[in-house]
Amino acid sequence: MGQNLKTSVIVPTYNEKENIRALVTMLLELPIAASVIVVDDNSPDGTGEIADRLAAENTGRVHVIHRPGKLGLGTAYIAGFKHALHNGQDLIVTMDADFSHHPRYIPGMIEKIETGYDLVIGSRYVTGGGTIECAALRKFLSWGANAFARTLLGLRAHDTTAGFRCYRREVLESIALDRIFSSGYSFLIEMLYKVQHQGWKVGEVPIIFQNRQQGSSKISKNEILKALQTVLKLFWTRGKD
Length: 241
Ligand SMILES: Nc1nc2c(ncn2[C@@H]2O[C@H](COP(=O)(O)OP(=O)(O)OP(=O)(O)O)[C@@H](O)[C@H]2O)c(=O)[nH]1
Ligand SMILES: [Mg+2]
Fold this sequence. Notes:
alpha/beta; 7-stranded mixed beta sheet; globular
């Protein structure tokens, strides 16, 4: 399973010193020979240095992209995508560093890709999926953002804001990454919109999303407003590209 497909897992980090070592270790122990690309935005807590040590301990399997400051989740994914494509990866997985997205789901996501999907989402909102230990307000915001994006943009996936994804390289190659206007969290909605628009086959596998146990959240009110703005902007311009 997945043995012939070169797989890279992109982990964007900002202040994840409590999580990064445990996460990378778990990723390297998966029954797929995946490599890991950490994209760190000069985290003040030293996550970047821990990632460098992991890279030195696991030469060739762990790579670190250092950016000079907090430049946003969306552009972090793009930096990781370019690195993975340049290095000939077939499958590119993205996930959060805080264990909300558990590595154990990755083999199942790859299996689903192998049955003929181009993008597979680790989804909270399909049968068998769910969310635990999240505050009611956060659940409501996530549900609302999904309903809004699905209705206005006609997105067919159920979890449109999930950052837990597995893309085939051809999907990323088909999208003008430099033309994506969202730099932060709403990148996920914009990217999914473009993927569906290009006609790629999108699937979902259920995951249980667990609220972060260590470290602190980086999502701000501003990011939530930007997500609304992104959906509206895509809605006005739909069909024009
Ligand atoms: N490189 C980089 N990573 C980021 C940035 N913002 C967030 N991240 C990372 O993106 C992932 C998601 O961020 P979280 O803070 O977990 O956001 P969230 O999941 O919406 O919020 P909580 O889990 O409730 O804290 C984590 O791995 C963060 O460290 C950023 O500007 N740059
Ligand atoms: Mg999180």
